[in-house]
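I am still getting used to backbone structure tokens and would like to learn alongside you. Label the sequence line and the structure token line clearly, so we can match residues to local backbone shapes. Would you write everything just below, so we can both look at the same thing?
***
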Amino acid sequence: MEFQRYTNTEQEGWQAIWQLYEQSFPTCETRMERDHIDAMRDPQFYAMGIWEAHTLIGLLFYWYNGEFCYVEHFATLPSVRGQGYGAQCLKELCARYPMVLLEIEVPVDEMTRRRQGFYERSGFQVSGYQHSHPPYRSGDDPHELIALSHPGPLTPELDETFLAYRKTYVMRYSEAGRASRA
């Protein structure tokens, strides 16, 4: 398995990654393409394609600020789910960074409970912090998520640092973030 970083949309394979992104997440949880292109120029943003034998198997979009890695979007192709690629990706990511944070939907049905179980089996701990994630697009509503962390629990101080980082740094690469700065 190979991780390839994308810093622009002209790199080979990018269109397949963008298609997976749009298919894997609801519109309210995604950036517009122009905002994503802006984010790709930021050295703290990692737009990674995950490849196996020259075949795309997933995407991993994350931020690293020197203190923690924030996984913003992670998806594998439906055709490879259940084959261990997702767990292997997370294992490699967690080996690279001392603290990895992510957010998932509040588990309310079978699919969201399974997603939480997947992350817990991968060594992530549910923090007990529920966050209202700001919208990426103007006119959308915030959505409720719960925070998970690896390798240990998320402290109140780190949770505050993370929320401030997401609000002031990560979300500036969104339509709603641009509108709030105007």
Summary: The radius of gyration is 16 Å. The domain at 2-181 is CATH 3.40.630.30 (Aminopeptidase). The mean pLDDT is 93.
